[in-house]
Amino acid sequence: MSKEFEELVKVMARLRAPGGCPWDREQTYESLGEYLLEECYEAYDAIQETAETGDTQNLREELGDVLLQVVFHSTIAAEKGDFTIDDVAESVRTKLILRHPHVFKDKKLETADDVLDNWDELKKDERKMRGSGPKGGDSILDEVPVAFPALIEGNKISKKAAKTGFDWENTAQIFDKLDEEVSELKEAIEGDSSERQREEIGDLLFVVVNLARKLGIEPEDALKKTNRKFRSRFRYVEESLKRKGKTLEDADLSEMDGLWEKAKSEANISGA
Fold this sequence. Notes:
The protein is mainly alpha-helical. The protein is built from twelve helices and no strands. Helix 8 (150-163) crosses helix 10 and helix 11 (219-243) crosses helix 12 (253-270). The protein is globular. The chain starts with a helix and ends with a helix.
């Protein structure tokens, strides 16, 4: 354990100790849950930023915030006698060794896909040894937490299903399905049924998620990048109008469209 990590653990223990921080002392596993989730999302966003800019400063800070949550939970656990940060580290170390027999033993796995398939098999074996099935029930899809964001959940459950052979043979078939879902959505809109529209939008999104999976693209990553691109271009529109002494309310759609296209052109020139 590094000196810096030991100091972090000590600082967290001091904050929780008598005479420490009142807020930190009040926290529990449950109360910290939302913060752990937030920090993971912020770290995920920092990864996208790093991929686009090459700057890792924000990623370093956000990973530190995630680490803080792990240390915070482990400090609470140590106080309760549940486990320690060393137990957490040992559990991960043991798991990594057991699930990488191609590195620590003599099993031959040639490709990344082979490694992932073997990882899943080892997880199944571990559950059998514990006398438990998939998390939550008897379906292989129960291994995917329902609490995941919808795009991530859709991608993971479709991957699970595809491994059983329940999948389209090629992308052309998925495009046919897209056309079918678009037609059904149009019918729902014409029929003015909000419930069916919601259902058809969901079906359409799920097919797009499967198309992304088939192409080897993470849909969450793809949408995140598009969101960042939209933010950047819309900010350009806002700032351009502001330089003209205008607000968004002062501009009509034609003017905003023109500025949007200019933002796209400048982004293409700069390679952004």
